[in-house]
């Protein structure tokens, strides 16, 4: 494969903790959970390159990981391991992402465009075009949380195509609009393709994929099952869908359960080791392969859990804060308390009924 890629993902995984409650989630953040929390690996090691000017389709059954992958590429969520390299001075816009429910359509246009780096003057110049393409009438002045999914898609698509990104990520946006809007979007996507923009197109509509995509990646229960030219991958995927449809209800359930169990049981260390072994096999003379692979896996990711050091520091800061509150309420000075900590038990102040402290 040529090296002048626009986007590269390498050994990308995504783990979700399946918390039952918010408190379980909070305890896990501070690493205070006594019982292990079940995990689910939405992606189990995806490596893929996308070339400049290419339209890559992402296909796969519900829950296979397409949106997870496109959200990682667009920087909306972090990967658990692996490298995501988006080349050049690139702006990405994912249609469904970043619309704030409490803001109106108009406010969302400005916000999203500002986040794309446009100035207020540039946004003013584009506003009429964005509004007329979205064509959602007076809903423009309503909070986005009151929109139907079709309206959100119209607004998101319109903003995305007018702020002129290098890379456009379209995740199921065309499946919710009516025919007229669909045709407008297809025309716009074709225009983008002609301008040489890179597009990631996530869709369940194989017809749309066949019409728009140069290559296709088939994501299958967290793995990259196949990637290649549109015709052959769509053919293989159709054969899989037919095979699946021909199964009995019980067999379908069994198959899905087996695939999901594999995603729960995925062993990241074993996967890392297999990447090390593959690399050693491919480049027998390379040194420190294990350390390099570890860096590739974890070097560019932000941990979503606290390290032991951070945990200790957090507890110390909390204790210091509580102590300073106690000293303050006791009415003694810090030096008095330092000389004789027992004075903390003899406060010189009390809180009156109005809530203020009296000496
Ligand atoms: N925040 C989350 N917490 C736990 N699991 C999640 C979370 N987000 C996604 N998942 C799981 O990750 C898997 C992949 O989800 P994703 O939305 O990427 O699939 P998809 O291929 O885009 O599906 P669809 O075609 O239905 O849109 C699913 O099993 C989903 O339940």
Automatic annotation (TrEMBL):
One GO term in the molecular function aspect is:
ABC-type transporter activity
Q: Where is the ABC transporter domain?
A: 13-246
- A Pfam match is ABC_tran
User: CDD domains under this entry?
Assistant: ABC_KpsT_Wzt
Residues folding into a coiled coil are none
Q: Name one GO cellular component term.
A: membrane
Q: What top-level branch of life does the organism fall under?
A: Bacteria
**Entry's transmembrane regions:** 312-329
User: What keywords were assigned to this record?
Assistant: ATP-binding, Cell membrane, Membrane, Nucleotide-binding, Translocase, Transmembrane, Transmembrane helix, Transport
**InterPro entries cross-referenced by the UniProt entry:** AAA+_ATPase, ABC_transporter-like_ATP-bd, ABC_transporter-like_CS, ABC_transpr_TagH-like, Bact_Polysacc_Export_ATP-bd, P-loop_NTPase
Keyword DNA-binding set for record: no
Give the family from UniProt: Belongs to the ABC transporter superfamily.
The protein depicted here goes by the name ATP-binding cassette domain-containing protein
Please tell me the species this chain comes from: Secundilactobacillus folii
């Amino acid at each position: 494969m040529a090296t002048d890629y626009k986007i590269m993902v390498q050994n990308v995984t995504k783990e979700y903790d399946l918390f039952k409650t918010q408190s379980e989630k909070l305890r896990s953040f501070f690493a205070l959970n006594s019982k292990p929390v079940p995990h689910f690996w939405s992606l189990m090691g995806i490596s893929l390159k996308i070339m400049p000017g290419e339209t890559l389709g992402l296909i796969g059954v519900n829950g296979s990981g397409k949106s997870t992958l496109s959200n990682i590429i667009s920087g909306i969520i972090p990967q658990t391991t692996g490298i995501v390299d988006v080349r050049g001075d690139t702006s990405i816009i994912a249609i469904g992402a970043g619309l704030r429910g409490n803001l109106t359509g108009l406010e969302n246009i400005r916000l999203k465009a500002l986040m794309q780096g446009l100035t207020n003057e540039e946004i003013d110049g584009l506003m009429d075009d964005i509004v007329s393409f979205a064509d959602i009438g007076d809903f423009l002045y309503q909070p986005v949380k009151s929109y139907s999914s079709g309206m959100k898609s119209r607004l998101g698509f319109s903003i995305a195509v007018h702020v002129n990104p290098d890379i456009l990520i379209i995740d199921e946006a065309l499946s919710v609009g009516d025919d007229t809007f669909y045709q407008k979007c297809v025309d716009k996507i074709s225009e983008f393709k002609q301008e040489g923009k890179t597009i990631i197109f996530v869709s369940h509509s194989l017809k749309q994929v066949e019409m728009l995509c140069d290559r296709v990646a088939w994501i299958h229960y967290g793995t990259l099952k196949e990637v290649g030219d549109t015709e052959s991958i769509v053919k293989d995927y159709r054969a899989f869908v037919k095979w699946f449809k021909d199964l009995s209800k019980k067999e379908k359930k069994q198959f899905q359960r087996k695939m999901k169990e594999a995603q729960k049981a995925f062993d990241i260390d074993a996967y890392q080791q297999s990447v090390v072994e593959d690399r050693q096999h491919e480049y027998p003379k390379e040194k420190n392969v294990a350390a390099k692979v570890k860096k590739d896996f974890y070097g560019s990711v932000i941990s979503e859990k606290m390290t032991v050091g951070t945990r200790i520091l957090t507890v110390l800061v909390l204790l210091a804060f509580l102590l300073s509150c106690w000293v303050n309420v006791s009415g003694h000075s810090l030096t008095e308390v330092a000389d004789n900590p027992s004075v903390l038990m003899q406060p010189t102040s009390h809180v009156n009924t109005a809530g203020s402290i009296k000496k």
